[in-house]
Specification:
mainly beta, two-stranded antiparallel ribbon
Length: 448
């Protein structure tokens, strides 16, 4: 969803001005000190309240350094953001120039074959930032309620888009957020690359979900996701090859998706970074069988094992293995490819859900509070779609992709972080070969 700069700036300035006015009023004095509004540096107690309902994801905005709050912390408002200019080189291909790629190292967009004279690129990209607003009411009570909004650019266009917008109350969350199918703690270590590993389960969904409290380390969660094959910014992600033997035999435009996706998980945590989670999802895909002239429904499903292991406070391992049929919308590299549901061989008019998988492993080593090293490897793969991919545009021809990254981050100050990263990726097709790309990039990240 695109938003104008004027609207964003006006809203944030209004919120900040209002907070400042109340802060000045509190200095003047009054009888009820617990309800005074203050503008203060974020304390550990306030940071803990804010973290409780902030998104857990690789590119989340850090907890802001200053907040507007009541003296008893019953009301808290925080505005924060990041500005992250990136400089880099592509070596072996020109992935940066591909549609829907840019600073995102999208392995599914690597050109195959690599074209002569276009096997490298240099770029400086300043349009990679975001701003968020979080308001917490009735904090530290059973009725604590949080509203969270995040807007930003995507590194491709200077347009500001809505990235997150949700409300949390009594362990229920509703709005635009990362789906419960994703295990954000296990998906990957930090990267400069906004995209992340090819096999990561990652999707922003319109969702209503419940996450239980911890019962001696055991937790569970369940949700319903909006039954749509569109992404949050309006890009169509559900189209599949509808032609059999030269004749169109299926149609998706006339079939309404009436059954929501249902993700759920159970988890046991020995500690924050020693945990294991089992996740599952059920999907339904409605389409028109033009041969039988009727609407049909088909099930999709997926399962995932994920978690972390931390033998010491300096070392953290990440792992995730997902497999399913028709879950391309949730797999980072396959989302947007028209091959999740394809015509059923030998049965014109009917569809089948394509089998696919995503796998990630990673490791973080924290030398000290300022210096961190990370490494990761990932694969995404799809089966039984070769003949359909061969009939599609070459940009949609996809068999599997590999992704590897190593990086280093150094915290210069609490507000400023420097990072350097090497990325490698390979995209393989069904009938036109494969191609690689390597990228070296560095960033300066300012957070407030």
């Amino acid at each position: 969803m695109r938003l104008s700069y004027a609207l964003i700036v006006t809203s944030l300035l209004t919120a900040m001005t209002t907070g400042t006015m109340y802060a000045d009023d509190s200095i003047a004095g009054g009888d009820d000190h617990s309800n005074k509004i203050e503008f203060k540096r974020t304390s550990p107690e306030v940071a803990s309240i804010l973290k409780h309902s902030r998104p857990v994801e690789a590119k989340s905005v850090p907890v802001p350094r200053f907040v507007v709050k009541s003296a008893n912390n019953n009301f808290i408002m925080a505005i924060g953001g990041t500005i992250t200019p990136i400089l880099g080189y592509d070596i072996g291909n020109n992935l940066y120039k591909q549609d829907n790629a840019g600073i995102s190292f999208v392995t599914s967009a690597i050109p195959v074959p690599a074209q002569k004279g276009k096997k490298g690129d240099f770029y400086i990209n300043p349009i990679n930032g975001s701003v968020d607003l979080q308001i917490v009411g009735l904090a530290n009570t059973k009725n604590e309620i949080t509203g969270y909004i995040k807007v930003g650019t995507n590194g491709i266009s200077s347009d500001i888009v809505l990235q997150r917008a949700y409300v949390t109350w009594r362990n229920f969350t509703a709005g635009m957020k990362l789906t419960l199918m994703q295990d954000a703690y296990a998906c990957q270590p930090p990267t400069i690359d906004p995209e992340g590993p090819s096999g990561c389960v990652s999707n922003v969904a319109y969702e209503i979900g419940y996450t239980s409290p911890s019962y001696k380390g055991f937790r569970y969660a369940v949700a319903i996701d909006m039954p749509t094959y569109y992404s949050s910014n309006g890009v169509y992600r559900g189209k599949d090859f509808p032609v059999y033997d030269g004749q169109q035999v299926t149609d998706y435009g006339d079939a309404e998706q009436l059954i929501p996706d249902v993700p759920a998980w159970v988890e046991y945590s020995f500690s924050q970074w020693n945990r294991i989670r089992f996740t599952g999802i059920l999907r339904n895909f409605a389409y028109r069988d033009l041969v039988a002239n009727k609407t049909r429904h088909m099930a999709g499903w997926g399962v995932m094992l994920s978690g972390n292991a931390s033998p010491s406070n300096k070392l953290i391992f990440y792992y995730q293995l997902a497999y399913g049929h028709g879950i391309g919308n949730y797999l980072q590299d396959i989302a947007g490819k028209p091959i999740s549901f394809v015509p059923k061989d030998g049965d014109p008019g009917r569809m089948s859900a394509s089998p696919m998988m995503g796998a990630n492993i990673g490791v973080t080593y924290n030398v000290n509070s300022r210096l961190q090293f990370n490494a990761m490897f990932s694969e995404s793969r799809i089966w039984n779609v070769g003949e359909y991919c061969n009939a599609l545009d070459e940009s949609q021809n996809y068999k599997y992709a590999l992704y590897g990254a190593v990086n280093c981050f150094y915290n210069i100050t609490p507000y400023l972080q420097w990072g350097i990263e090497y990325l490698w990726g390979r995209r393989q097709t069904w009938n036109i070969g494969g191609a690689n790309d390597s990228r070296i990039q560095t960033q300066i990240a300012f957070s407030f």
